[in-house]
Specification:
Elements lengths: L2 H17 L3 H6 L7 H28 L16 E7 L2 E7 L5 E2 L5 E11 L7 E12 L2 E5 L1 E8 L8 E13 L5 E14 L11 E11 L4 E13 L6 E10 L2 E9 L5 E6 L5 E4 L3
Antiparallel strand pairs: 1-2, 2-4, 3-4, 4-5, 5-6, 5-7, 6-8, 7-8, 8-9, 9-10, 10-11, 11-12, 12-13, 13-14, 14-15
Helix pairs in contact: 1-3
Organism: Flavobacterium limnosediminis JC2902
Protein name: Lipoprotein
């Protein structure tokens, strides 16, 4: 899904509001507030995390015997995949080359992502992982490991059993200028509509919950989904409702994505103040 553009806007708008000062003030303060580069790096990590998790799920779906026959991968033609099986473990090495391979959303990828899991696709929970080999996302070095755990179960969101994927985040990036950032946390993504049509991606609807911490050289902040996000793949803007609360120091920003309409407007309220409308996405 293309939640990365939405999360980029969340981070940028929130951080700008929280800072409440111009660039010169940012550079001179010692309170641990986010700098302009921190804001940009955080947005980049959102995009990286979402896209790579999507690729990891694509690999699992491709490997699953129930879907292999007709499942169409989302990987671009410029990516090559080598899959091996050793004992009860499959491993797919996705090679995006050394010069740049364009993902469907325009991101340029190079290097390798290694995705691995059990050949027993019926186990519950099903756990699989991915890591990197000299992997770059838009010239940003990406390192770390993610563990994903999928169950099919009924939840408060949907009484009918459906896929629930819990993603443990452990991600490090190095920007072209050498500055480093890390992120840890958990996100839970439930496929609440479209599970009964596994070969049709556009009818998928996801509910997302979770929280994560992003840390740079001198600061960190915590993002928590306080009302589940609803993502509709057939909506141009994807994210149609939900609330994210972001805290840093003594400041709180509340982002509200509305009541389910397919539009790209949301509201933000700072430190208990009146909400105002903003536009997210491209």
């Amino acid at each position: 899904m293309k939640t990365s553009n939405l999360l980029k806007s969340i981070v940028v708008i929130t951080a700008l509001s929280l800072i409440g000062c111009n660039k010169d003030q940012e550079e001179n303060n010692d309170s641990g507030r986010l700098t302009t580069e921190d804001i940009s790096a955080n947005a980049k990590m959102d995009a990286i995390s979402n896209d790579i998790s999507e690729i990891a799920e694509d690999r699992l779906n491709t490997q699953s015997s129930a879907r292999t026959a007709n499942f169409q991968s989302i990987l671009p033609d410029c990516a090559s995949v080598t899959t091996t099986v050793s004992g009860n473990t499959w491993t797919s090495v996705i090679n995006f080359g050394t010069t740049g391979c364009q993902y469907y959303n325009g991101a340029m990828l190079r290097g390798e992502i290694i995705v691995s899991g059990s050949t027993n696709f019926d186990q519950s929970p099903y756990v699989w992982t991915y890591n990197f080999n000299n992997f770059y996302y838009n010239d940003i070095l990406v390192e770390g490991t993610k563990t994903l755990s999928r169950t099919v179960q009924a939840t408060a969101a949907l009484a009918t059993p459906h896929p629930v994927v819990v993603i443990d985040l452990d991600l490090d990036i190095t920007l072209p200028n050498g500055n480093e950032y890390s992120r840890v946390g958990t996100r839970t993504r439930e496929l609440i509509e479209g599970y009964d049509t596994p070969l049709l991606f556009l009818d998928n609807v996801y509910q997302i919950t979770g929280n994560w911490t992003t840390t740079g050289a001198n600061s960190s902040h915590i993002s928590t989904i306080t009302t589940p996000l609803r993502v509709e793949i057939d909506c141009l803007h994807k994210l149609v409702s939900g609330v994210i609360t972001i805290t840093r120091n003594n400041h709180i920003a509340v982002l509200d994505y509305g009541n389910g309409n397919c539009d790209n407007t949301a509201t933000i309220a700072m430190d208990g103040g009146a909400p105002y409308t903003f536009t997210f996405g491209n």
